[in-house]
């Protein structure tokens, strides 16, 4: 369930085999809008419904959703069409969270396998993929005015990406599995947009930077060697004298 920021009395709901609906809390008897399922697939089989997250587009009646069947859909309740006016797919894993970028021209989606992608809502095309996430994404939020997106999930890290860069600019280990996040309006976000040490330096295929090996060598050189244990002395065994 999500609330419309511009009209707080309106909320949208969706779920597993529960199609998208828009409700007016002042008149909760019937929904204002009830989405219709997409047409059957090429085998003439019904397409299952499973909305995992949704969000209102500011300045319009449109709603964008992501599903557990790796679909991103855009609905327009102001049009006579109850089916999605735009639909695209990303990846092969269930999508769990989404957030609109500044300007609401694109959306950032995350999946259960740690995939982060920026998708254009005007043409339904994949703009770029954001890297660095190892576990399932549970929470996403874009800054309302700056090209920043924060993500958290089951790998216990909070990450901040710039929408123009693939690598994370900042990350913090928070010990527990994370489900949601909220950006503070009092944070100095200009400092977060500055280049960070994580974005500098060359990296190899495993994600290690040039200075990592030097730091590791210095650490091992500073450690005192542990003496090896002295083997126990071998005592000669007495040979039994042969009997008469």
Question: Any key phrases for this structure?
Answer:
244 residues, mainly beta, Methylamine Dehydrogenase, Chain H, 2 domains, four-stranded antiparallel sheet, elongated
Describe this structure in words.
- The chain has 2 domains: 1-89, Thrombin, subunit H (Beta Barrel); 93-198, 7 Propeller (Methylamine Dehydrogenase, Chain H).
- Helix content is 7%, strand content 34%.
- It contains 2 helices and 16 strands.
- The protein has helices at 189-192, 210-222; strands at 2-3, 10-15, 18-24, 33-34, 51-56, 63-67, 71-75, 86-89, 95-100, 106-111, 116-120, 126-130, 137-142, 148-153, 157-162, 168-173.
- Strands 1-2-3-4 form a 4-stranded antiparallel beta sheet, with no helix packed on it. A 4-stranded antiparallel beta sheet has the order 5-6-7-8, with no helix packed on it.
- A hairpin with a 4-residue loop joins strand 10 (106-111) and strand 11.
- It is elongated, with a radius of gyration of 27 Å.
Radius of gyration: 27 Å
Supply the number of structural domains.
2
Highest CATH level, the class of the largest domain: Mainly Beta
List unreliable stretches of 5+ residues: 199-212
Structure classification: mainly beta
User: CATH topology of the largest domain, what is it called?
Assistant: Methylamine Dehydrogenase, Chain H
Q: Give the number of helices.
A: 2
């Amino acid at each position: 369930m999500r609330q419309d920021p511009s009209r707080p009395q309106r909320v949208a709901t969706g779920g597993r085999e529960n199609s998208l609906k828009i409700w007016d809390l002042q008149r909760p008897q019937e929904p204002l809008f009830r989405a219709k399922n997409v047409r059957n697939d090429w085998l003439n089989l019904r397409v299952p419904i499973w909305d995992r997250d949704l969000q209102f587009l500011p300045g319009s009646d449109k709603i964008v959703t992501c599903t557990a069947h790796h679909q991103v859909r855009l609905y327009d309740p102001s049009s006579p069409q109850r089916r999605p006016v735009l639909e695209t797919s990303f990846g092969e894993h269930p999508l769990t969270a989404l957030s609109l970028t500044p300007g609401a021209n694109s959306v950032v989606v995350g999946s259960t396998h740690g995939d982060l992608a920026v998708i254009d809502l005007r043409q339904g095309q994949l703009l770029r993929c954001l890297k660095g996430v190892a576990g399932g994404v549970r929470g996403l939020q874009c800054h309302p005015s700056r090209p920043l997106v924060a993500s958290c999930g089951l790998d216990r890290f909070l990450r901040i990406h710039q929408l123009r860069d693939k690598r994370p600019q900042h990350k913090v280990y928070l010990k527990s599995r994370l489900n949601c996040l909220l950006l503070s309006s009092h944070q100095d976000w200009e400092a977060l947009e500055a280049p960070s040490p994580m974005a500098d330096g060359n990296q190899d295929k495993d994600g290690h930077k040039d200075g990592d090996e030097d730091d590791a060598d210095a650490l091992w050189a500073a450690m005192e060697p542990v003496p090896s244990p002295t083997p126990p002395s071998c005592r000669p065994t007495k040979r039994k004298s042969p009997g008469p």
